[in-house]
Structure formats: C-alpha cells, structure tokens
C-alpha cells in the first residue's frame, strides 16, 4: 500500500509535483500515467526517500520509507532503467547486493530464475542489452521479496517479448497480493497492463480510477463527415459544444454531436452527405485529450491540440 498526502516537490521555481494525494492498493497493478515531465519519476523518488518532499508526505506499507527496518523487504524499486556499469557478472552483482542487505544467497538464484536471467547470469553486467538490464533491475527490485514494487517506465525500450514479460510478471506479483505501482507515458500499454490508473500532468493528478472507467470517461466519439457541401454543413452544425475540424476540403471531423444528429441537420438543410461515420477515439487520442493542457512542451509542428477543434470552421 502506498499513501501520498499533499505530496509536493519544488526544484527552484519549478513545481515538479504539486500537492498530489493518492492511494495505491495491494493486490492490483496501478499504472501511473502521464506525459514526459509530468512528475512521475519525482513522485516515485519521493516514495522511496530519494527526494525529500517540499511539502506533504508519503507512506509505504504504513510508514515513511526511511522508517522501515528492512526496507528491501518492504519496497523494491526500478527507478532508472539504465545499464548498471559494473565489471561484475549478474549473479555476483546480485550476490553483493544480497550480502549488503543481509539477504540469503538462495534468494539470488530465485530472482535469477524468476526474471529469466539464468542464461546470462555469468555475463558481465556492463555489456547487457537494455532488455537484459531491465530484467536485472527487476531482479534487484525483487531481491528482498518486497510487499510493494515501484517500477518507473519498466517497458521503455523493450522489445515486444520483453514488454509481454513485464506485463505477465506484474500481473503475477499483484495476484500474489503485492502492491504494484508502475509508470508509463503510454495509455495503450497501461490499458492492457494496469487495473487502476492515476493520471498525472504538470505535477497534478488529472484523474484516477479503474482503467476502463478512466478510458470511458475520456474517450469521446467523433463523427467523420464527407460532403460536397461541407462548408455549409459546418456552419449549420457549429455550436457551443460542437467542435469541427476540417480534415481536408469536403471532409470534416465533428465532436460533440452524434452521427444521427449530424444526419438530421443535413437532411433538414437539404445538404448532401457522402459519408457519416461514428469514430471512437483511440486510447492514445483519449490520453492526448486528457493531458492536452498538461504537457510541458508542445511540439512545434503539431501540438496535442491539433486534433481539437476549429470551431465553426469553414471548409
Ligand atoms: N533534479 C531536478 N532539478 C530540476 N528540475 C527537475 C529535477 N528533476 C525533475 N525536474 C523537473 O521536474 C519535472 C518533472 O520531472 P519528472 O522526471 O518527475 O517527470 P516524469 O513524468 O517522470 O517525466 P519523464 O517520463 O520524462 O521522466 C520536469 O519538469 C523536470 O524537468
């Protein structure tokens, strides 16, 4: 269980995490979803005591991380998916860590087995691929058999097989009753992997809840319309809650109205339709909509707002 209350981190003038409160329950996979720079890593670092909160507090399994006598048994974390620069082989690297923390040597073999590292356990860690490095990072996190796991972007840079492995692994660990908290900037990945979502943007929690509920709340539908009289139709459809994007001349995307409503307006006005198709927004579009105002940097060529509307547009 992780419980954060008013958790805040300021770096100079930058408010990286802004009074966030949330609870991550055991027995479930909870996804921490947000665009780059949203504050995910900073929040996770505060949970494991690597960053000191400017305000607020956070507890893991009922206590601040630093107050646990055997922290590796309480919390395992993968915070930077970087290769470990050491000349040691994987097994010796894990053995050294186990010895430092008073953990039994046989646990090293267990985590090597669990993370599929057996074939490379005698290889130098410095030469590991990103995927193997990631598995090793998870092996390190699992070493103390922790009740809570915190994984920052664990699937970043992994091949499809590695992504699937992480997904299966976190599911298994949650089913064992552990608390699993993992971050990602990919809605599609979280939709498959997580049970619960906490969505963050610009240091603030935007929404949270069961994955399907968050998706349903955000992924509105739009209607694709093709008409040789698109300009007139756009004028007739325009309204306060209606957003119309001109995809190209004669081709509109309409948000805020059902296909039937668009068809009725067209019929009433005597305007010809060549196509009228309801389109469910993809997960990534839903995520963009959710965080559009909360991304730190918009790309110059097309901001996340680009899929939004030009109200009352002329075709
Ligand atoms: N040590 C630091 N000093 C100054 N600013 C920082 C520091 N660490 C993070 N930040 C800033 O705080 C904000 C949140 O960063 P953070 O790394 O927590 O976001 P994130 O959601 O994990 O993004 P990413 O996926 O890109 O790592 C960003 O604006 C970042 O530039």
From TrEMBL:
Pfam families, A to Z: ABC_tran
InterPro entries: AAA+_ATPase (IPR003593), ABC_transporter-like_ATP-bd (IPR003439), P-loop_NTPase (IPR027417)
Keyword flag Amino-acid biosynthesis: no
The UniProt record lists the keyword Repressor: no
Chain ranges of the ABC transporter domain: 2-227
Matching Gene3D superfamilies: P-loop containing nucleotide triphosphate hydrolases
Family named by the database record: Belongs to the ABC transporter superfamily.
Protein's UniProt name: ABC transporter related
């Amino acid at each position: 269980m992780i419980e954060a209350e008013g958790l805040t981190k300021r770096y100079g003038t930058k408010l990286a995490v802004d009074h966030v409160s949330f609870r991550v329950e055991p027995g479930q996979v909870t996804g921490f979803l947000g665009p780059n720079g949203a504050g995910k890593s900073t929040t996770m670092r505060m949970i494991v005591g690597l960053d000191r909160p400017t305000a607020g507090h956070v507890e893991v399994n009922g206590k601040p991380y630093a107050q646990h006598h055997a922290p590796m048994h309480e919390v395992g974390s993968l915070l930077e998916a970087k290769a470990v620069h050491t000349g040691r082989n994987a097994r010796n690297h894990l053995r050294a860590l186990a010895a430092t923390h008073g953990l039994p040597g046989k646990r090293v073999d267990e985590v090597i087995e669990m993370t599929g590292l057996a074939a490379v356990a005698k290889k130098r860690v410095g030469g590991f691929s990103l995927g193997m490095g990631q598995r090793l990072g998870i092996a390190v996190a699992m070493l103390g058999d922790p009740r809570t796991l915190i994984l920052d972007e664990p699937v970043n840079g992994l091949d499809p097989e590695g992504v699937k492995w992480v997904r299966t692994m976190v599911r298994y660990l949650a089913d064992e009753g552990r608390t699993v908290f993992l971050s990602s900037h990919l809605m599609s990945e979280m939709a498959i992997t997580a049970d619960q979502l906490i969505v963050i943007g610009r240091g603030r929690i935007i929404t949270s809840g069961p994955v399907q509920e968050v998706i349903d709340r955000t992924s509105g539908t739009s209607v694709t319309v093709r008409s040789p009289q698109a300009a007139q139709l756009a004028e007739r459809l325009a309204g306060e809650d209606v957003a119309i994007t001109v995809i190209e001349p004669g081709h509109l995307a309409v948000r805020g109205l059902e296909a039937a409503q668009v068809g009725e307006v067209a019929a009433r006005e005597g305007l010809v339709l060549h196509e009228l198709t309801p389109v469910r927004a993809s997960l990534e579009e839903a995520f963009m909509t959710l965080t559009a105002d909360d991304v730190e940097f918009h790309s110059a060529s097309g901001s996340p707002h680009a899929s939004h509307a030009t109200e009352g547009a002329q075709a």
